């Protein structure tokens, strides 16, 4: 019995088969025409390497390549000096030098010693072949002197050989090789994510969210000045904590102790003991609203960032401010910590990202590629890389020096939050309520989501302020402007057949920073 499929499924299957049939030939370069390639290479050799085409070379190199006249595809004139001689080495004199200290080197004062015939012969016998090769390359700077003084007519070999020989050995110079245009690799297939739960309870925008290390519950902070703890499995409210007198902008749960840390627009940074559900420590020092915080994974250190353009490092136990990281010229919107260097990363409204030396309390690197405020930074859980989000682009970077990897373009909105899991799914949440999901490695945008606002809310209350994966990375939680927390999960029924990657291996254009 033939299984019946919907027209939609059959069309997608047909598309996928067609794509797989032609993908091997897609973007293949046109085969090279030998004649035009020779002309192109000859022109390239003359323009780029004309000044060194006549440089002296060793006979032993010529013999390895099959004689001076073989293998010259470009028809250049050959120099036939020393054909009757068996000299294996170029014995050259010294470079010109002045006769004494403090004497200017001019044509009248220069001294140049030439080796005698017997000395030259004894030196030639003593030199090993590899040494002679290095020496020939090393004395090449004095080509004019060799030609004028050594009494040996210059020798050359075909340009394809002489130019491409480098000091370390006979590697071809990359400039002479035909380059294949880089193409985007095929992205890994990820199942689409679907909304499966909406949790209500806050009376204001939900500004921040964090999942506890045991994956039993999660915590949210809101513009209603409360911190709420929710059961992750059921979505039920477990506890409300009050104490902040303005919007709560950041929450994080410690993996090293039973503490919850929070910060807000009231300039306060609080440490809550979850055994007693009370504030046990305050960290005083910021001069304006505190926008974000993070805990160091291996030492008892808390880092906060603020609208006062600084980030502060606190000793969790003593409440002392260890360092004030100053250097940004506008509000610091986000901060992240890691165990490896650089241990602290900040993103700011001054459009820069800074990588900090935790011990010295100083900037290691400043990244100025973004053109607009950087409100979100996320570190990859496995790779030594990170991403930053700004209205102009999402950019990926390599640690430790912040080398640029690639742009992820297309999320044209104010990006408030980024999250990434071990599978390489990067999520960007924006101020207009849109959420884009990307393949980390290739930068392919495989899904776009814009969930409806909670009934009773205005359409303008569509916005994502924070998002996070739970510890199992099978759930994605978002904190939104319609006062809800939305929970997404992967669509178990989706397959690569029903949701094919509509990707073309197009030529990558070099992107400006």
Provide structural commentary.
With 513 residues, this protein is α+β, with helices and mostly antiparallel strands. It has a domain at 194-490: Methylamine Dehydrogenase, Chain H. It is 13% helix and 32% strand. It has 7 helices and 28 strands. The chain has helices at residues 7-22, 34-49, 59-64, 117-126, 129-138, 143-149, 159-162; strands at residues 193-200, 206-211, 217-222, 226-231, 237-242, 248-253, 259-264, 269-273, 278-282, 290-295, 301-306, 310-315, 321-326, 332-337, 344-348, 353-357, 362-367, 376-379, 385-390, 393-398, 403-408, 415-420, 425-430, 435-439, 445-449, 464-469, 475-480, 484-490. Strands 1-28-27-26 form a 4-stranded antiparallel sheet, with no helix packed on it. It is flat, with a radius of gyration of 33 Å. Belongs to the WD repeat PRL1/PRL2 family. Keywords: Repeat, WD repeat.
- Main sheet specs: 4 strands, antiparallel
> Count the helices. How many?
7
Uncertain spans? 60-65, 67-89, 129-172, 506-513
Report the β-strand fraction as a percent range: 25-35%
Mean pLDDT: 82
Spatial ordering of strands, largest sheet: 1-28-27-26
Approximate helicity band: 10-25%
Family: Belongs to the WD repeat PRL1/PRL2 family.
Protein name: Pleiotropic regulator 1
GO cellular component, one term: precatalytic spliceosome
Pfam families: WD40 (PF00400)
Keywords:
513 residues; alpha+beta; Methylamine Dehydrogenase, Chain H; 7 helices; 13% helix
